[in-house]
Amino acid sequence: MGLRKFLDDIEPLFHKNGKYAALFPLYEALDTALYKVNYTTKSTAHVRDGVDLKRMMIMVMLFVLPAFFFGMWNLGYQANTAIASGAGVMPSDWHGWLIGLFSSNNPESLWDNFWYGAVFFLPIYIVTFVVGVFWEILFASIRGHEVNEGFFVTSILFALICPPSLPLWAVALGISFGIVFGKEVFGGTGKNFLNPALTGRAFLYFAYPASMSGDAVWTAVDGFSGATALSHAFSTGLVDGKLGDLTWMQAFLGLQQGSVGEVSTLLIVLGGIVLMYMGIVQWRIVAGVMAGLVATSLLFNVVGSDTNPMFALPWYWHFVVGGLAFGTIFMATDPVSASMTNVGKLWFGALVGVMAVLIRVINPAFPEGIMLAILFANIFAPTIDYFVVQRNIKRRMARG
């Protein structure tokens, strides 16, 4: 009750003509994050539901946490394994100093691996959150709007798809571009047609490709360069059922190089199943992606190639390497930038699945196709919905 009374007492300071009126969006965001709103819709028509946008975003964040924590452990495990084998050395910057302060480099130690991963990932997330909140509050204050809760999910998703060795200045630049040019210039949440997190990552990918791709950015140690699963798929393909030394089960569990959020397909899928059951993640989009993925992969398997081993990669390998699973569950299903109609969601998802495999297999310049596939589908989502609606109108008119 003490906190509730304190917030009520200071609320007039944030209203119009109050001392801190310009900061009302910040106050409102804190108040509604801690307590339910104390007002209801008065006019018709409206839907009465206890699950508002903020609670939906909290659910998404909650069910991405297992992949979040496992990914931090795996980041440390991959780094400590590389150090133990002599393939790399401890970072010589502040990361190395902070890691050595509280742990060693034993890949068999749960704490050593988790702390190593936390030292690299948490600063990325903190910078993403702080810079993103700054832009959200700035635009909300200028427009007189409330701070939208969707950013909390955007921030964590953006951080989870960044390479662990990405410089913090690049993190700030990427999330700034994603928020400002991917969302705010179009009017804010609900009016953007591109996924803001992917927009920021795409900007960094094309502006600073050396920091966003290759074989040296996914394992956070100095002097390391090891081929990722997708690199092996391009160069040698499957050999004795493995991509390099990686088995399918290891890839499915998440024991592979990659960004923190994308490595464990198992935890991504489990979180996705719960969110689909709750109706937060749209199952039609996920089903469409899987249909497009399977159909396109099987087609390439049948066509074959003597020079490109990626043609022979089965669909179930495509799904567990790179960011395809994470993109399918948490990115393609963005309720704002995806298709809105039920039939449109299926076509939208299918387009994502087809384009992801096409980019991976046909264009070796982009070894990870899911990011570009989702952004490409985002552009066509309104067109897909338009044709679906027009088809329904024509069918109804034909029935008289």
UniProtKB/TrEMBL annotation:
Belongs to the NqrB/RnfD family. The chain crosses the membrane at residues 56-75, 114-139, 151-181, 259-278, 285-303, 315-333, 345-363, 369-389. It is a multi-pass membrane protein. One of its GO terms (molecular function) is FMN binding. Composed of six subunits; NqrA, NqrB, NqrC, NqrD, NqrE and NqrF. Its cofactor is FMN. The lineage of its organism: Bacteria, Pseudomonadati, Pseudomonadota, Gammaproteobacteria, Oceanospirillales. The modification FMN phosphoryl threonine is found at residue 228. This is Na(+)-translocating NADH-quinone reductase subunit B. It comes from Reinekea marinisedimentorum. NQR complex catalyzes the reduction of ubiquinone-1 to ubiquinol by two successive reactions, coupled with the transport of Na(+) ions from the cytoplasm to the periplasm. NqrA to NqrE are probably involved in the second step, the conversion of ubisemiquinone to ubiquinol.
